[in-house]
Structures are given as C-alpha cells and as structure tokens.
Amino acid sequence: MTDYSALPSCEFAFPGPLRDQLVAAVLDASKTSTTATLIEYEIEQEDLPVVGLQEVVIDSAGKPVAVIEMTEIRQARLAEVDLQHAIDEGEGFTTVAQWRAAHEEFWHSQDMRDAMSDPHFSVGDDTVLVLQRFKVIARLS
Q1: Are 84 and 75 in contact, with CB atoms under 8 Å apart?
Q2: 1 confidence band (pLDDT: 50, 70, 90)
C-alpha cells in the first residue's frame, strides 16, 4: 500500500453535514471541482495549488478517506464562474445563480468569518477565486 502520510490535507468546508456531503460527492466522483477565495490562501499563508498537486481528503471525523490530484487550476472573478464548474462541484447545482447563492451563504457564514478573522468578510463580483479541478487517485476507506 502506498504511504500518503507526507501529502498535504484537503478539508472541504468545516466539519459537519456540509463536509460529509462534499466528501461523499468526492468519493462517488460527482464532485470534481471546488472553489476557494484567493484571500483565504493569503491569510492562511498557503501556497496556491498547482496542477499535479496531490492532497489527502479528510472527513468530518478527521479520517483520511481519499487522495485527489489537481488537474486544472485557474483564477476567476466571482462574476465569471461558469456553469460547468458549478455543476462539477457535485452539489446538485443546475445554474450558476444556485451555485453562487450557496457559496455566498458559506462565505458569509459565522464559521468562515471566524476562520478569516474578519467579522465582516464578504464576497462580491470582483472577488478573485481559485477554481480547482481534480480527480480521485486513491480511496483510503
């Protein structure tokens, strides 16, 4: 068995129902894209992902469940997110408006504002996003 312990971890959303839903979608291959704000990387002082990057997906219990590999990385303004990206997030979105409403709700949540150390954190049309496309290369559970 391959040792993936040296790989960085990938945590979708915060532990709880949304993470559980997203991890399930990764595992059943309905989720092949994800989105983060560029400012998150800056605040967390993390390098931006690159094509070929492998990460271990962590579930709500902190357990490694899969290894994903980045296949495409691009930056876009929130207003420029396309329908295919929204669909490929695996959350059942059929329009960009649905995708945006759900993501704005997440980004404007108390959990996110706490994580950003900004009680007024918000996004708008010009917010730069990091759009990531990935594939599962190993299931760990």
Answers
A1: no
A2: low
